[in-house]
Amino acid sequence: MAEDFEDGGTFDYVIVGGGTAGSLLANRLSADPARRVLVLEAGGDDNWIWFHIPIGYLFAIGNPRSDWCFKTESVPGLNGRSIGYARGKVLGGCTAINAMVYMRGQAADYDAWRQLGLTGWGWDDVLPYFLKHENHFSATASSEGTAPLHKSGGEWRVEQPRVRWDILDAVGRAGAEIGIPPVADFNGGDNEGAGYFQVNQHKGRRWSAATGFLKPVMQRQNLTVRLQAHAERIEMDGGRRATGLIYTQNGRRYRVRAAREVLLTAGAIASPQLLQLSGIGPGALLQQHGIPVAHDSPGVGENLQDHLQVRLIYKVKNVTTINQLDQSLFAKAKMALDYALFRRGALTMAPSQFGMFTRSSPEHATANVEYHIQPLSLDKFGDPLHKFPAFTASICNLRPTSRGHVRIKSRDAFSAPAIQPNYLSTPEDQRVAVDSIKLTRRLAQAKALAPYEPEEYLPGPGIASEADMVKAAGDLGATIFHPVATAKMGPDHDRMAVLDGELRVRGIEGLRVVDASAMPLITSGNTASPTLMIAEKAAESIIRDARG
To answer: What is the pTM of this model?
Structure first.
């Protein structure tokens, strides 16, 4: 029996996901009025105040209004725990609820991509695409004077944080004592050092991808944005070319046609899920769920990489942290007034204000761990802050060797897939976790922190053996929300490479994946801005291909 769909129209480009990459692609592709562009966003509009006040992430993560509220499978390396896996459910995607940290990663990350056989993806190749959309508070030149490190005038606003904390300054001095020197900018290609994070904000307000790229151009006559539009499957002509999409909006099903390309920008969880639902993925998995195999692509949904953070908490004395302010109605009122009048203070805070990049042990050639230091503590997002003053030293392994997967559980497009990150599944990752705990304890014992008498609350001084530290890392570990690589690009000889170097899906014409799924290896830092770089580079490729 034939399925019945309403006509969703015909467009040159159908963009599936109005998040980080989708917002930029929509901007670039619709710049030519001759190109008809459709954006399908399964979430809603960003018209909730907590999408715009930076500290609103506390209310957005874990909230079904703003977060898909995914859960992982039981993870053996986390001692059998299943953890929350936040993904943005709104225009702007994860940039509407993330940490707002502006971070490119390391030059060596992209040079490693190039060495895999991905011509055009080395550091010198990708830097111009970071710069193309950057609007940096300080456009400075490199130390050699040969190329700019920052530019102004683009859509992606970068500012300095608008609040400082005595405890964070002290942590920075403690870092210098143990060999982590201060650094003014993490984005020059080598991010080793300590300092306050630069943030994607404008005058104390969050600056999401939708704010920067999509909202300013939504009046274009050739750009259509449809919200609450949940993609069900990609349609293909003879199983070889993507011709359009089936989606549901407000209980009604539509068929939309793509005259040129379907562009998946739904993120590292939803993009591989949609490919699998459409018959593109591991053949055995698709057959298990009764999905006809259009293209047997074993890498779809595999190779999941993420940064696992191990959150050590230290009670402190003789210093103010957010924990105390949270206990005082007067302090809360003062914070609200400070924000309302001057757009400054605690409400402008990113989840993490102070960062440190360093090596967990000497054998690493570049910084392999990242600290997010916070002047607060809580058991997990959504829980109340602790009633004692404290800071959190969250440390993540930047280059994990563990690999996980994203796999559909059924043919139902509205059913969450199985997310298995496989954290701490390799001896190398366990070694980094142990070394990270030891390094953090050295940091807490530095003279600069002595006036504040830090006392380890978690995992606690009783955790002494390396075996106990591995278990503690499993007990305390959580995602820092950087999933990537589930539809990776790679050279022709790599059978697990879903995409070629132009982000085209192998075996299917007219279909690309343009988001963090495409990364072959995770970058050494926060992943939002690298995802925008990928989208910027892809937009150029898409336009070039259209011109022939």
So the answer is: 0.96
